[in-house]
Design a protein that fits this description.
Blueprint lengths: L3 E4 L2 E4 L2 E2 H8 L3 E5 H14 L5 E6 L6 H9 L3 E4 L2 H9 L7 E3 L6 H10 L3 E4 L2 H14 L3 E8 L21 E2 H12 L4 E7 L10 H19 L6 E3 L16 H19 L3 E4 L3 H4 L3 E13 L2 E6 L8 H5 L5 E3 L8 E7 L8 E9 L5 E4 L20 E6 L2 E6 L4 H4 L9
Parallel strand pairs: 4-20, 5-6, 5-13, 6-7, 7-8, 8-9, 9-10, 9-11, 11-12, 12-13, 15-17
Antiparallel strand pairs: 1-2, 2-3, 4-14, 14-15, 14-19, 16-19, 17-18, 20-21
Helix pairs in contact: 2-9, 5-6, 7-8, 8-9
This protein binds pyridoxal-5'-phosphate.
The site of pyridoxal-5'-phosphate has 17 residues, from helix 10.
Length: 421
Amino acid sequence: MDFFRYQNGELYAENVAVSKIAADYGTPLYIYSKATLLRHVEAFKQAFAGRNGLICYAVKANSNLAILQLLSKQNIGFDIVSGGELARVMAAGADPSKVIFSGVAKTEEEITMALEAGILCFNVESAMELDRINTVAGRLGKVAPISFRINPNVDAHTHPYISTGLKENKFGIPVETAFDEYLRAEKMEHVKIVGLDFHIGSQLTEISPYIDAIRALKKLIRQLYAAGIKLHHLDIGGGLGVTYSQEAPPLPNELINAAYEELADLFEDVGELQIVVEPGRSIVANAGIFVYKVEFTKDNLGKNFAIVDAGMNDNIRPSLYSAFMNIITVIENPESELKLYDVVGPVCETGDFQGKNRQLRIQQGDLLAMRGSGAYCASMGSQYNSRPKCVEVLVDDEQVHVIRERETYADLWAKEKLLAE
Ligand SMILES: *Cc1c(COP(=O)(O)O)cnc(C)c1O
């Protein structure tokens, strides 16, 4: 459910006409709905009602400071994957004791920074990383709270680029060697074992891969407890899918209920663990739309193109993952003929498209809106083809707040240096 709706043939973001926002701030632009964002957070909170859960929003999905600030005010935590993301969440007012640090290549500088901030947990993804964390913590005279990211070798049934829980993926440590790593960590002076985690992929539209993973890891948890290693939390990762087209992904409470059901026998034996989730997409994707303008239409011998002012630098998802994202007209245009279009951008790459074979009634100058654009769109933006990054606004009822200004041309080379003559 979101708050982007048509009223009298015109698309609104909450209570502001999208065409009005586009006129005021130009295109291309990202528009987020505050009410939608908060509603999605609430769905996760309700799923945990009366239970010991922690929601850690995955920052990489959308790392805009204002969004992080809004989420941090909801008292949720964050899942970060870099020092930059740690700096961002701190700048947005996050409580570091609710921050989890994932990622396969944590540097000494990043580990130092996280230890100094006092984060909740490092999700350790390799044996060497464990050694590095122990060394860095020792140097600082600290004890690092750690969890191992276990690769349960389950198929998440999603796009190969966003599947992370198979043994051929680079993520986590194999379930087969995890026990030995826990034993090794247990003996280290500067790490403290607090959890176990997995994250098997993104845009998951069924519960069964999560349950397969939990089932595989329950055995390991029992083995750990038998060896005297106790855990504070079990982190089941993010990955819950959203509706881009016809998908019908499970709701947060369906996922959480199923997880607790699968864990009931384990909790009976070892006591209840805190359950951590790391949702990104399911919180922000449908809280955002991407709006752009039709610059030209052209008919190349029967193939119709809608050439828009938005490129793969602004939204790379269609090019990178062959992602389907719904494209709709901002103001319905019943007079224009219904045609099949490839919606393409200005970037000089054949892979620069926003959508293929879309039935649209459009003409030059019309605005298009791409739904589900709150996650992995603006945060993946680049300046390729020297295109300044676009403006982002957040709508709150009748108010529009700019949360990232459109970059200027001078921003493009702000960090570059001319050679001395
Ligand atoms: C990307 C990522 C997430 C978030 O995934 P979504 O599909 O956006 O929910 C959570 N945890 C880790 C470790 C990730 O890399």
